[in-house]
Structure formats: C-alpha cells, structure tokens
Design goal:
By secondary structure, the chain is α/β, with parallel strands linked by helices. It has helices spanning 51-68, 108-115, 118-125, 134-143, 148-151, 158-167, 174-178, 192-197, 220-226, 240-246, 277-281, 304-315, 322-330, 352-362, 371-397, 414-424, 435-447, 454-464, 475-489, and strands at 4-11, 15-24, 27-37, 41-43, 46-48, 72-79, 84-87, 154-157, 172-173, 183-184, 189-190, 208-209, 213-217, 232-235, 255-260, 264-270, 285-288, 294-300, 403-407, 428-430, 468-470. It has two domains: 4-240, ATPase, nucleotide binding domain (Nucleotidyltransferase, domain 5); 248-431 and 452-493, Nucleotidyltransferase, domain 5 (2-Layer Sandwich), CATH 3.30.420. It binds adenosine-5'-diphosphate (ADP) and 6-deoxy-beta-L-fructofuranose. 6-deoxy-beta-L-fructofuranose (LRH) binds at residues 12-13, 80-82, 100, 132, 239-241, 261-263, 265, 299. Residues 7-247 form the Carbohydrate kinase FGGY N-terminal domain. Its EC number is 2.7.1.5.
Length: 493
C-alpha cells in the first residue's frame, strides 16, 4: 500500500503541536514537526489568547511540515472548547479572544439562572453547566453592554478562527459547536430560546457542518509560501476532546475513557445523548462527536492544578519537569491531604499552592508545605474525584465498566494512572499520549476515503500505539481513604 500523509494541528491550552500522520499498511506513524508554548496574556486584568502569535507558530510549523513532506494531502485543526473570536463583515477581528479562565464569568451562573433556570438550560442543550461555557461568556458581554456585538458579523470558535485564517472560510463544526451550551442536540441546531432569552444576537451564529467536512483550500498566499497546491483544510472533530475520543483504542463496549491533559474528561461514547434529572444532578455533558455520536462525560479540573504549581515553582527559580515533580510526590506518605479538585476556587487562583493550602486549612486539615506533599495531594485527590465521577457514570448508564483507557499527555503520569486503577479497582490502559492528533488524522483519512470507518480507524490506532496496563493494587486501602476524602470535600464550595 502506498503512503498517505495528513497533518494534524492540535492546539491545547498549554501547548500547540503540528503532527504529521503517515498511513501505510494499516499502521499510522506520527511525527511531531513543531511544538510551541501556548499561554494566555493578561492585559489590564483581562486574560486573552495570543491568536496572532499562535497563527505565526502554525505557519512556522507548516513550513517545517511541508518542507519535509511535500505530499501531505490535508490539514485538520482541533482546539480546546468553549472559547471564541468575533469577526466583522470585512474579515477583521472584533476584539481579541478572551480565555475561559478570565474572571468575567465569576458569579455569572446565579445571574444566568434568573434568566433561565438551570434545568431548562440543561434540558435544551444537555451540556454540563460550567461558568466557562460560551453561553455564559457571551452573557457576561451582554451584561456589560458590549459594543463588540455592533461590529460582529460572525462568532467563530477557536478552531474555526484558525480555519478562517488558513482558508478565508467562515464555518463551524458540530463537535465544537456543542461545547457552547447554545446548541440543541435533539433539534440539531442553534437553540433559539436560549439566544432570545439571553439577548445574544442570533445572526452571529455560524453555519454548522459535520466532522469530516472539507472547509476549504489553503489560502493562496500560504500555498505559495509552502510551494504546494490544492491542500484541503478538513474539519476533523474541531473540539480536541472529540478527536481524543476518536483516538481511544477501545474495543467492544464496556470501556470508558479519560482524556487527560489540562482537563480530565471522563466518560463514554454514546449513540444518543442522555438528558435526564440524574444526568443533570451529576452535571454530565453530552458533547457532539464523530458520526453523530455523543461524548457523555464530565469535565474534571485535571492536571491544570499540576501545571499551575509547576509554573509557580519555576517562577521562584525551581524549574522542575513533570517527571521530577511526580517523583517528589512518590516520596511522600499517602492520604495526608484531601481537596476537591473541582472546587471553583481552583479555576484560576492567583496562587494555586496557596489556594490548596487554604482549602486544607478551611476543612480542618493540616497544611501541606513541601512540594511533594502538594503534588501528592493533587494526584490522590484527582484519583478520588475520578472515583466520584466513575460511580455516577456507572449508575447513570446502569452498567459495569470493565476497563478505563487514559489517553493524552496526562497518560504519561504513571503515578496517577496507578492511583486511578487502585481506587477504581479495574485495569487502566494508558496511551496513546497523542490520541487527539491521531483522532484528528484518522478523521481526515476517513474523509479522504483512505480508512473505511471509525472501527477500522480505532484498530489502526490500537495496532500503531504503545499502551501500558495498570492492574489495581491496595484497592481496599484506597476505598477506606475515599470515605475520608468524601467527608472532607462534601459541602465545601
Ligand atoms: P493539553 O492538550 O490540554 O494542553 P496535553 O495532552 O498536552 O494537554 O497534556 C498536558 C499534560 O500532560 C501536562 O499538564 C502534564 O501534567 C502531562 N505531562 C506531559 N508530559 C509529561 C511527562 N513527561 N510525565 C508526566 N506527565 C506529563
Ligand atoms: C480540553 C477541553 C475540554 C473543555 C475545555 C475548555 O482541552 O476542550 O473538553 O471543556 O478544554
């Protein structure tokens, strides 16, 4: 079989990467050709995404990719969910995209529920209620009477914005659209009742296409720079979690996954959404996926906590790697400090270390001081939180899950993977760490007719990836301490 090549541009909240996928004889080899740091920028107390720098990084990566592989046939972009930019009729940006961790949505939920009860918002969208969602970001702009709406022609989610910069086309795609909490998955369209009640101009919502749609051709100027022609830009799942779930090497149907990166997204893939009182109470989401599937999952604050303490210590002069940080935790005693990682105070505190210490103080615990203690507290608490969510998941689905796949950058954290197997009492399979890019690439390959369908795609990913199995150990001890975690974390918000 001949080689076919595709390029994934995978933009995460911590880093962006351009990865070439080479398909040959039922195997998919990947090569990272460019990686760059992604950090929001604080300007006058507002947190913005540096989209022009990111686009420059993408262009630098394209030069590297195409100078090595002239026969790349298409490009697909995925990014984190919920954030957006606004463009004018003339194709200018109206303002700079704001990061979902900006404080403009602090306290917004109470105000929003006065406009529409949370039950109704959930019933119409099936999306986990979180202050970061596009709906609440837009509502914060409505409340400040933002003049940006006057010049806005269309709202574009982050991947759409980069597709626009690459092709000039204005469109969005199903998986990323559903992260907004403005999309009705049953009616399969923008939810007009929400737009009307929250006074969001209806006309700014763009046309929605399914994953696997050709968005357009690479802009002429870029093609000339690269010395190539007729390169298609394809919408994979434009939402990174959508790609990550396509990239889970699961087999059969009794597996669940955690897409582990900045966030930990734990759930299953379903053929239709689950929207009922139980899923509302447990605040599970139903994000749109490839082939009209749904990601029934829960957002857990994830390794963001580790990213932040790492960054804080680097600022103080100790720039430790993730491996070093995790090793410090291994040296500490287990089950000393417990936090609820999903406490809203951890969304974007001034100091994560101090926030964790304050949480321990206010819950009557001793205060972790050493770096290793802080990290152990984060990792154990994440594992306990996984147990909370896993229990809800099995109950709502009314079935036993036999194996958990962990994919994404966080799957490299061996200590957390072992903790997860221990507390859940089931085997955990880790890898691939680049599931998102793999998912992105296989959707392009299916679109181009090179791979038949998602079942074949997952087999290719299974056959091409390194995976590691963690068997549960000490589960009884973990469950005894889980009771302690629950006692401490309940009722604190
Ligand atoms: P995102 O796409 O959300 O930016 P990634 O999938 O790149 O996230 O995962 C980033 C996370 O992966 C980091 O926050 C870190 O916790 C974890 N990670 C990355 N490299 C390593 C490593 N060598 N060992 C352990 N964990 C790692
Ligand atoms: C993960 C992710 C997640 C969203 C969050 C904003 O990168 O896309 O699915 O909820 O970022």
């Amino acid at each position: 079989m001949e080689e076919r090549k595709f390029l994934a541009i995978d933009l995460g909240a911590e880093s962006g990467r351009l990865i070439v996928g080479i398909l040959r004889d039922g195997r998919l080899a990947i090569e990272e050709v460019h990686r760059f740091i992604n950090r929001p920028v604080d300007i006058l107390g507002r947190l913005y995404w540096n989209v022009t720098q990111m686009f420059q990084d993408i262009k630098d990566g394209l030069v590297k990719a195409f100078s090595k592989y002239k026969d790349i046939e298409s490009i697909g972009i995925d990014t984190w969910g919920v954030d957006f930019g606004l463009v004018t009729k003339e194709g200018y940006f109206a303002g700079i995209p704001v990061c979902y961790r900006d404080h403009r949505t602090d306290g917004i939920l109470e105000k929003a529920f006065e406009v529409m009860p949370k039950e109704r918002i959930y019933e119409l969208t099936g999306i986990q209620i979180m202050q970061i969602n596009t709906l609440f970001q837009l509502y914060s702009m409505v409340l400040e009477n933002s003049s940006l709406f006057n010049s806005t022609y269309k709202l574009l989610f982050m991947p759409d914005l980069f597709n626009f910069m690459l092709t000039g086309e204005i469109k969005t795609e199903f998986s990323i659209a559903t992260t907004s909490q403005i999309y009705n998955p049953i009616k399969d369209g923008w939810e007009e009742e929400i737009l009307r009640k929250f006074s969001i101009p209806k006309d700014i919502m763009p046309e929605v296409v399914p994953p696997g749609t050709v968005i357009g051709k690479l802009y002429k100027g870029i093609e000339e720079d690269l010395g190539v022609k007729n390169i298609h830009v394809i919408a994979p799942c434009e939402h990174d979690t959508g790609c990550a779930v396509v990239g889970v090497p699961g087999e059969g149907d009794d597996w669940a996954y955690i897409s582990s990166g900045t966030w930990s997204l734990m759930g299953v893939e379903l053929k239709s959404p689950i929207i009922n009182n139980d899923s509302l109470r447990a605040n599970f989401t139903n994000e749109g996926g490839y082939n009209k599937t749904f990601r029934f999952l829960k957002n857990i604050m994830g390794l963001w906590l580790l990213q932040r303490v790492k960054r804080e210590w680097a600022k103080e002069g100790e720039d430790l790697s993730y491996t070093e940080i995790t090793r410090l935790a291994e040296e500490e005693k287990p089950f000393k400090y417990f936090i609820n990682p999903d406490d809203v105070s951890f969304l974007n505190p001034t100091s994560m270390v101090k926030e964790i210490q304050d949480y321990c103080k206010k819950t009557g615990q001793k205060v972790p001081e050493k770096k290793g203690e802080i990290v152990r507290c984060i990792l154990e608490s994440l594992a306990f939180r996984y147990k909370d969510v896993f229990t809800d998941l099995e109950r709502i689905l009314n079935k036993k899950i036999k194996v958990l796949h962990i994919v994404g950058g966080g799957s490299q954290n061996q200590l957390l993977s072992q903790f997860t197997a221990d507390v859940l009492g089931i085997p955990v399979i880790t890898g691939p760490k680049e599931a998102t890019a793999l998912g992105n690439i296989v959707v392009q390959a299916i679109t181009k007719g090179v791979v038949k369908d998602i079942i074949e795609a997952r087999k290719i990913i299974r056959d091409s990836s390194e995976m590691k199995v963690y068997q549960p150990q000490n589960t009884e001890e973990w469950l005894r301490n889980y009771e302690k975690y629950k006692e401490i974390t309940q009722g604190v918000n």
